Amino acid sequence: MIKEKEQLLRRALMGIDLCAVAISFAVSFALRQNLNIFYRLDLFPTRHVIEEFYASIKYFNILPVILFSWWAALASSGLYESFRRKSFFEIAWGIIKSAFFVMIAFSTIQFIFKLEFISRAFIVLFFFTSCLFLITERLFIVSFFRYARKKGYNYKNILIVGTGQRAENFIKLVHNHSEWGLHITGLIDADKNMLGKDVSGEKVIGVLEDIPKILHEKVIDEVMFIVPRLWLSIIEKSLLACEIEGVKTNIAADFFNMNIARSVSSEIEGMPLLSFQTTAGEEWQLLLKRLFDIIMALSGIILSLPIFVTLVVMIRSLSRGPAIFKQVRSGLNGRK
User: Fold this and answer.
1) Residues 143 and 166 in one domain
2) What angle do CA 292, 135, 148 make, to 5 degrees?
3) Widest pairwise Cα distance in the chain
4) φ, ψ of residue 53 in degrees (nearest 5)
5) What are the C-alpha distances in Å from 304 to residues 301, 307, 324?
6) Rounded to whole angstroms, what are the CA distances from 33 to 19, 47, 67, 110, 268?
7) 31 in a structural domain
8) What is the pLDDT of residues 285-301, one digit of tens each?
9) 261: Cβ contacts below 8 Å, ≥ 6 apart
10) If residue 159 lies in a helix (H) or strand (E), which one and from where to where?
């Protein structure tokens, strides 16, 4: 039931986003067709402007492509995942990054298919209006859900396995962020002597062997394993119990204390992997960076060409050596 509800909310959010993009597309188009209002106090479009508006209705033929690009960009930025624990700045930044991706895709399509009727002014206007509409929409939605959670609605019941310092820190985080909508049902420990004890305002309600019973008797949406690495050999049965009940499970084990590397979960043919990486691993981010590097390099070469020609002439007049030389550069992981 919970998963179906989350899936329904996710689809509704996608629909709202696409509506916001479509509206911003229409607003940008209208502003582009009536730019005269910014340099003339002509509040009513002239006959020429009105005729141009209807003649340029072919703009809307590319709207489906734009909607698909926005959906793909927002999904790849993680904006359709749960935003309970995301700050509004993270959400806004994700929208802005998605907008850059869409603009690059839009400009590429315009160049490849020679869509000369699309103006640069429209692209710029669409970039800003779509960001404004989506950020405003998400601000309203996030604020609404956080207000509802503070009032006790739309919350998740979580069971925390572990009573150590890291578990205490997480409990304090949950207490300090009521907008996350997380309600701690209780704590689990491996030591029976901890039963009934209080840890940071939360009670220990069972041991590892009690997890199947607790999942049957109480409404638990997620189980958080915040345990030391020494526990990994004794929590397997508990993980299997959560799997059987279909309860989402999170493990926050202190594997290694890495300084700058971040952990990323993945899998190969069903084999789960935990990767530690210090560089961006998303292929689409590397692709965008590569495209940006090429475009900026070509632009710089073209703009600096007169200076280069002058320098080549000066060097050749003063030296017999080559004016231009090659140098091997190293890229990611020593690639040349």
Assistant:
1) no
2) 140
3) 89
4) -60, -50
5) 5, 5, 15
6) 21, 12, 21, 19, 52
7) yes
8) 667 777 778 888 888 88
9) 276, 277, 278
10) strand 156-161
pLDDT of res. 298:
83
Based on the fold, state whether residues 140 and 166 are members of the same structural domain.
no
Integer Cα distance of 180 and 156 in angstroms: 9
The dihedral over CA atoms of 91, 93, 96, 97, expressed in degrees to the nearest 10, equals -110
CA angle 68, 112, 30 (to 5 degrees): 55
Structural domain ending residue among the three candidates 150, 176, 206: 150
What is d(CA 303, CA 242) in angstroms, rounded to the nearest whole number?
A: 61
Closest CA to 205 of 194, 216, 215: 194
Structure tokens, 142: 């996030």
Last residue of a domain, one of 86, 118, 150: 150
What is the mean pLDDT of the segment spanning 301-318? 82
Amino acid at 266: S
Regarding predicted confidence, which is higher, 87 or 200? Answer: 200
Q: Which of 88-92, 203-207, 244-248, 307-311 has the lowest mean pLDDT?
A: 307-311
Q: Read off the pLDDT of each residue in 132-148 and give the average, rounded to a whole number.
A: 88
Closest CA to 156 of 177, 138, 140, 141: 177
Cα dihedral 25→31→34→39 (10° resolution): -160
Exposed, middle or buried: residue 221 (CB in 10 Å: 0-12, 13-18, 19+)?
A: middle
Per the rule left: phi > 0, alpha: psi between -120 and 50, beta: everything else, 259 is alpha
Residue bearing tokens 């090429």: 294
Number of domains in the chain: 3
Instruction: Tell me the C-alpha distance between 279 and 262, whole Å.
Output: 9
Rounded CA separation 260/184 (Å): 31
Do 86 and 12 share a structural domain? yes
